[in-house]
Each structure stands twice: as C-alpha cells, then as structure tokens.
C-alpha cells in the first residue's frame, strides 16, 4: 500500500536521457492519480535521504542513481548486509538481491557475514510470487 513515488533524476543537466526518463515517469504517474508523485534531482534526493529518510516511500531512478542511492540508504540502515533489494523489469522479470552490492570478501570463511539482506530479499520474492504466508514466516523468524 504505497502512497508516494519519487522520480529521481538529473534532467536539468542530462537533458536527453534523464529527460526521457522523467517524461515516461510523468506519463505513468498520470495513469495513477491516487498515488502521489514527486520529481527530485538526485543531488537533493541524497541530502534529503540523509536528513529526512521518512519522506520517501518508493523511488524510481535510472540505474546509476539507483545504485548510488541504494548504497547510501544501506549505510543509513546499518550496512550492506541489512537491506534487501529488487530490480523489476517492464515485462515482469524480477531479480531479488541484497540492496547494496558490497560483497564483504574480507568476511569470507570467518562466520561473520550477515545474511539478513538475502533473507529479506527472499521474503520479497515470496510476496512477488503471491506466497505471503511464506514471506510472513520468514520475516517473523528474522525479527525474533
């Protein structure tokens, strides 16, 4: 039950690529008038994410900004091992993974890696597959 979508861009400088991205975002937002839509330049988004993360619900970004923002958000939440992530394609293809792609090779073999991000990503996958009871069970186990 998401209430707001923020389109993150740099269309003021990257007029062609980000301009097209923003145009498609606006067209799509017009089809869903009950969902609040806002546009925000990526620089301001990063600053606001640090100072007021609660202001955001769903962000849609071009790939580069999404990677940067995902890592920033992961740091705010406690690190790469905590935050789940998903990449959704326009044709229903979805890839579930940890939200920040820091692989922590220095932890390999030391029994220190945190699997929370992968487990939460699995819960997101279960919801995507319409298996909410499996997602609920997994999330409950993580929170205990």
UniProtKB/TrEMBL annotation:
It holds the Pfam family Iso_dh. It comes from the Eukaryota. One of its GO terms (biological process) is isocitrate metabolic process. SUPFAM superfamilies: Isocitrate/Isopropylmalate dehydrogenase-like. Keywords: Tricarboxylic acid cycle. Gene3D superfamilies: Isopropylmalate Dehydrogenase. Residues 1-144 form the Isopropylmalate dehydrogenase-like domain. Coiled coil: none annotated. One of its GO terms (molecular function) is isocitrate dehydrogenase (NAD+) activity. The keyword Transmembrane helix does not apply. GO terms for cellular component: mitochondrion. Belongs to the isocitrate and isopropylmalate dehydrogenases family. PANTHER family: DECARBOXYLATING DEHYDROGENASES-ISOCITRATE, ISOPROPYLMALATE, TARTRATE (PTHR11835), ISOCITRATE DEHYDROGENASE [NAD] SUBUNIT BETA, MITOCHONDRIAL (PTHR11835:SF42). This is Isopropylmalate dehydrogenase-like domain-containing protein. It comes from Chloropicon primus.
